[in-house]
């Protein structure tokens, strides 16, 4: 898994907001490239995370779409200034590092998708 760390020292998955007219899959590719420095290829969709927070003048509801992705190039050295660190981590470490329960749930969903691809463990 690739995690990004905010200046507040919170670990999360890369995510962002669509730009004008941008499709969700285009947003995912652009945001991952900006936030991590990696070029990626989209794979299966994991799901949608919904949450709310208070903005300057109103409550803001967000829906963030997540996909499994495969890195095809790039470098963490090219990540944006919005994040102070970017790391590859195993699932167990990612589950311990992420700052929010809904992110941990999304990681569990991603692991379940990957487990279904591999099938039962060979004896």
Please provide a written account of the structure.
This protein is α+β, with helices and mostly antiparallel strands. The protein has helices spanning 24-36, 91-97, 101-118, and strands at residues 2-5, 11-12, 38-54, 59-74, 85-88. A hairpin with a 5-residue loop joins strand 1 (2-5) and strand 2. It is globular, with a radius of gyration of 15 Å. The two termini are 27 Å apart. The model has no long low-confidence stretch (mean pLDDT 92).
Task: Please outline the helices and strands.
Blueprint: E1 2-5, E2 11-12, H1 24-36, E3 38-54, E4 59-74, E5 85-88, H2 91-97, H3 101-118
Antiparallel strand pairs: 1-2, 1-5, 3-4
Helix pairs in contact: 2-3
Keywords:
123 residues, 35% strand, alpha+beta, 3-stranded antiparallel sheet
Overall outline: globular
* Strand line-up in the sheet with most strands: 2-1-5
Q: Tell me, rounded to a whole number, the average pLDDT.
A: 92
Total helical segments: 3
The helix content, as a percent range, equals 25-40%
| Strand segment count | 5
Give the low-confidence spans: none
Amino-to-carboxy terminus distance? 27 Å
Structural class: alpha+beta
The Rg value, from CA coordinates, equals 15 Å
Oligomer: single chain
Per DSSP, what share of the residues sits in E-state strands of 2 or more residues?
25-35%
Largest sheet: 3 strands, antiparallel
Helix and strand succession?
EEHEEEHH
């Amino acid at each position: 898994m690739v995690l990004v760390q905010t200046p507040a020292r919170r670990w999360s998955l890369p995510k962002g907001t669509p730009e004008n007219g941008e499709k969700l899959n285009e947003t995912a590719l652009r945001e991952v490239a900006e936030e991590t420095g990696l070029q990626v290829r989209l794979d299966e969709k994991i799901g949608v995370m919904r949450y709310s927070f208070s903005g300057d003048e109103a409550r803001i509801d967000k829906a963030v779409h997540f996909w499994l992705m495969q890195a095809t190039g790039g470098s963490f050295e090219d990540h944006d200034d919005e994040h102070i660190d970017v790391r590859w981590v195993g699932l167990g470490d990612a589950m311990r590092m992420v700052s929010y329960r809904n992110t941990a749930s999304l990681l569990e969903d991603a692991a379940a998708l990957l487990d279904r691809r591999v099938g039962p463990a060979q004896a």
